[in-house]
Every structure is written in C-alpha cells, then in structure tokens.
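Dear colleague,

Following up on yesterday's call, I've attached the two folding results inline so they're easy to grep. Please treat them as preliminary; we haven't cross-checked anything against experimental data yet. The first protein's sequence and structure tokens come first.
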Amino acid sequence: MKLSKNYKFWFCTGSQDLYGDECLRNVAEHSRIIVEELNKSGVLPFEVVLKPTLITNELIRKTFNEANIDEDCAGVIVWCHTFSPAKSWILGLQEFRKPLLHLHTQFNEEIPYDTIDMDFMNENQSAHGDREWGHMVTRMGIERKVVVGHWTSQAVREKIASWMRTAIGIVESSHVRVMRVADNMRNVAVTEGDKVEAQLKFGWEVDAYPVNEIAEAVAAVSESDTNALVDEYYDKYEILLEGRDADEFKRHVAVQAQIEIGFERFLEEKNYQAIVTHFGDLGALKQLPGLAIQRLMEKGYGFGAEGDWKVAAMVRIMKLMSAGMKDAKGTSMLEDYTYNLVPGKEGILQAHMLEICPSIAEGPISIKCQPLSMGDREDPARLVFTSKEGAGIATSLIDLGDRFRLIINSVDCKKVEKPMPKLPVATAFWTPQPDFATGCEAWILAGGAHHTAFSYDITAEQMGDWAAAMGIEAVYIDNNTNIRNFKKDLMLGNVVFGK
C-alpha cells in the first residue's frame, strides 16, 4: 500500500517593479537562498521548489493555476519580500484550490544598524508587504496557515514541516475511497453519517459492496499464497497456543492470511484505500477479519469497525500525514471500552474486538486464537499487544445533522498497572487531558463517538488546521480546557457553523 508520494511545495515571492531591476534581482537571489537552505536543513519532509518572483496579475494567476493542475504540488508558500500590491493577487487567489502557507519573514535577521538606508528600507519591506497581502487573503475569506519568524529559525522550519504534513492530509483527502463491506451496526447512531455531504466537504467516496463479493476474492486466494503468508506470520509474531492443538490453531491463522490477501487484492483492484466491516454481516467469510485487518491497517489502509466509514477515512488521512516520519509511534482506530475510576489512577482502556493497528505496539506482538461471541463464526486469530506510552491525540469526526464537527482530545497514554492475561485483544490505556473527569465531560458535551482515529504522531494543531481547510468546526480538549469556557466554544460553533 503506497503511503507517500513525491510531493513538492512551491515557494512564491511577492514583489513589484517600483524599485527597478537591481531590487528584483536581489529579491530573486534572497528567495533562492532561502529555498536552498530550507531544503538543506533536513527538517522539511518535502522539497520546496522556487518559482519566479510574482509581480503582475497575469503571472500570479498563471502560477496559481499551474499549481492547481500539477499533481505533484501539494501547496504553495507565499512570502512578500517587498511591498506587493495585494489587488494583483485577487484573481490568482480566487482560482487557487490547494493548501496555502503565508511565511511572514524577511531575508535579514537583524537590522543592519550601521549601513541601513532608504534603498535597504525600500527593498526589505515584508513587515508591511506581508500585512498588505494578509489583509487581502483575510478579506477574501481564504483559509491559510501563517508562520512568523526568521527563516533560519529551527522553530519556523518545524512549523513549516508540520504544515506540510497537514497539507498532505488536505490534498489526499480528495483521493480517499472507502469500501463499505455491509452496512453499519443496527440502531447505532455515531457510525451513521451523510456520505454525500462527506464527499462535498472532504472529497471522500464511500461505496458499499456485498459481503459475498469480497468473500469470493478471499476464496480465490491459492493455498500456496496463503501458506506463504502464514509462514511470515509465524516468523514475525509470537504464537500463543494456550492449550490449543497446534495444527488446528494454524488452520485458524490461515483463514486470516487468506482474508488479508483477498481483501488487499480486492482493494487494490477497485482502488480503495480504506475499508469497514461489520460482525453482523459476514456472508461466506469463515471468521470476522481480525489479524487480516490489523495487518492492512499497518500497511496504510484506513479502517472503521461496525461500518464506521468516518473513522476509516480519518485513520487513512492520519496515516498519510505521518508517512515517512522519523521515529513515528503509530496511528490506529481505537474504541473507548471501559474505565479505571480509582482516584489518582483514572483512565480509559482502549481496545476493540480484534482490529487495532500493530503500529502502536510496544514490546512483543502475539497471535492468539480465541472465541468471539459476536458474528457467529469460528474463532478468529488476532494480534495481541499493549501500546506505547506517550502523548497522543484522539479524534472523532461526527455528523451533527446540519454539519460535521471534528473533536480533538489530547491524551496521555500510560501503562496499565497490572497485566490482563484473560483479555485476548490489543489494548491502549490513556487519561484524557486536562484530567479524566473534565476530558470525559467535554467529550460527551461535544458529542464525541466511542470510535476514534488515534495517533501518537499527528498534533492537535495539525488536525485543527485540516478541519479549518475543510471548512468544518474543530473543538479542542486539552490542558487548557475548562467546562464553562468549553460550553461557550460549543455555543459559538453552533452560531458560526450551524445552518
């Protein structure tokens, strides 16, 4: 499953010809140096490409439309070196459709006190050139990211790098296609949603397929291909027989291997990047997909349980945003299962019947084969592990009927106090910020679901920027949250985003 693409970001410098050719040559040279140093820094995950200095309506419009149609361009970074009359940018901005970052910087870090003169002042005018440009973008109501500081600053470079990953989530959103295998769980509210509105807002295609159509693809997988993948499983994971017959255990594991291969081939053939299943409609499948789904998620596919297509799409997007990240700790679908309410040790045990991505695992990963009361099928094999410690975010995209809302909760992942030897599923354990009671109350007030798209690697700011680019409401639950102000935020969201 391909997660990363050779995306590039264009660097467009604004200026004008009032101060002559020498000034414009300096502008071009300064821009060249900035782009070269940004690329050499090793901080940015994608290449920055220098474009010619933009000084006319025609060139600005042409450049932005070229960016629109260039499939490798994931966004544009704009810097107004000298005073750049913003009315020249109107047509280009009106037609631009990709992520936009405004880098508010200047070439020199320090005022050259001994040599500064009016020539220098006229040339180095980003202090008000950027304000002119920013005014126009605000007046036009265009969403963009603003990064302020000197271009050599590590903090500035890290902010640009962070935004680049958000931009990937924005441009890739229109390429996300979710395969629904059967429908969502009966009488469950949060897994429902307006799929037409989702395609209008996010670009997602959410399509349903009969269970037995994908079951046929599973049945078509050869025994030799299945056995080869089983051998891979046995080489990679610990095998926990727990008293089961070894041959019988292996037959159960082989069912999951056949499902993994069949599902992946079907997804590739039909060009889908995310999938949902439902234990209540398994057709000719012998087991509820467990180990198979866990492996597909690790490869980059999005997944949502019980037909939860919103979570499947969000997991896919967050995996794309974190692809190639150094020391990445993982992204997965998770579900709030049960609480620990001991004072001072409060937290939420996260799990699911089977389908948690092993990218979040710490320590050994084992294969178990245990009965499952739901689904009325044979005992499914699954990967069992505990998750890493550290900070993460849990997100819930909900459909409020008149709009979507993205809830973003910063959480602190911890180790459980004691082992849980009788629980045959992968688990995570976290305490929501700012504390258990406030975090849970805020989540419930916001309408958060019990399924989440979780990541150690993506930040709340990045997901909030993604939501802003999509034109939807985002609410944050973190260490700055108190319920009185949070209720006001929700009321304000109803006014701004409600129809």
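Below is the second protein, in the same order (sequence, then structure):
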Amino acid sequence: MGKYMAIDSHVHLWEVEHGIVNDRPVYSIGNGKVDFGGEIRQMMPPYMEDNKNTVERLIANMDYAGVNAAVITQEYIDGNQDKYLLECQRKYPDRIKIFSLYEENDDYLLDGFDGLKICAAKFKDKDLKRLLPVFKKVEAEGKILAIELFDGDSQVEDMKYLIDKCPDLKISIGHFGMVTTKGWQEQIKLACNKNVYIESGGLTWLFHKEFYPYDSAIDAIKEAIDICSVDKLMWGSDYPRTMTDITYIMSLRFVEETNKLTEEEKKAFLGLNAQRFYGFGPMKKMEDIKNML
C-alpha cells in the first residue's frame, strides 16, 4: 500500500505486558485495555483482545502497509521484553532490529541485540553524565544507543558531553525531541553531530489534538530539516499505542501524501536514512496488496 520503501524506527512488542508507571504496576485486563497504575487505558487496538502485541501481528500490519522493516524499542510501561524480542528476531531476522532495555543498573544485555534503549526521560536523577560507562560499553561493542530525553533541553548539555566522549557511538534520539514541548529544537540540534539521528516515533501522538493529516507535524519535520538536514531524520510509528485512534497505514500516509516535502525528502525520511543507520540490507518498495476498497 505504501508509495516508498519504508522502515519503522519505533515499534513496541510484547507477549505479556508487565510494566511500571510512577512506581505502580501496569497490567493487561483484556480487549486492548490495561490497568495503567490504577487508571484504565486503551493501550492497544481492541482487536488485540488477548492483549498480546505479537511480532506476527506486527508483520501482518507491516506487509499490508508496505513497511519493509522495523526497529523494536522498549519502554518501562511495558516491562522488560528482552527474552521475547530475542525470540522475535530469530523468527524474522531480516525484518526487525531489536534493542534491549537499560533499567538503571549494570544488569543489561547487549549480546544478541542491535542496541540498548535508555528511557532517560523517566529517570528520577536527570543527570546523564553518570551513564558514560554505559555509553562507552555500547560504543566499544559496536552497538547503537537509543535514548528518549526529558522534555525540552534539560538533558541536552549532558548529551553533548556524552557525544563528545563517545565520537564513534551511533545514537538515536526518540520521539522527535518531544517536538510539542518548549526547547525541542535543542534536541534536534544534537543530530548535527556525525553519528546522531532523530526518530519520529510518537509524532502522531504528540500532534493528536490536531489529528490527521497532521499539518503541524509536517511543519515540524520541515523545521527539523532546516536544523540538521533531512538525512538525519527517520520515520517511526510508535506501534501499537498510536494505533488506538489511527491505522498503521495512516501513520505512514500523512507523510507520503503531503505536498510540503519533496520526493527525495520523503524517501530519505521514510526509509533510506533508517536503512543506513541501523544497517539493514538492500530493500525496495514492497508490492502492493489489493484490498476490498
């Protein structure tokens, strides 16, 4: 269905959700709903009635939407999914890259994973300089470090320090710098460094009040292009949470159909940049699947 070769740089998977939010448990109650620290939330589409967000369902959605590959990241609210992600990669080694979860201790995995995910926005201690040994280890092992920062520019200076100390470390900054918050441009500026990229997972969530076709989100992409060039920006969906109100195809189509971006910008943002950054092999646009519409 897609018009371009596409790689989704921000996807979540789990068989059993067992996370934490504000020191309280997150657990499934069925029909895509969860108890989110004492509040009922629709965490995933209701057709995931068993609350299993499996790799098989993801691949089916990717095939239909024309998405070639995906990067599986992690988040505290889902719980550590390292073991399940290793199973997923064994099943679909050419379709996904996987990131283990850093949980503010030294007991984290790198072997078998493509990189490490750090949820810095959730840290009680916002100081990131203390993570230099972690950054150096990921760099030494030739892995990628994915990180989500606290809103705005509060952790940007620490990131500058870490980037300077780890010049060969490939870093992906998530949620498009929390684009709807003050100071988001400072996070985007970090991508002016050689090995730092920005991924847009959750962009439709951040602009949800505006809704489809997310004109302001496109404007934000254009502003980011002016800051760090289109070659440092990557598309991401934040599947399956953003699929509670839009379809997977819609998360891709609003970029494909805009007339504010050039064809070359769309190709780079939707797939080519992620293909290069994450080390995916040769790919071309997937064949269209005709549907009943």
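For the second protein, one point worth flagging: The chain has a mean pLDDT of 96.

Best wishes,
A.L.
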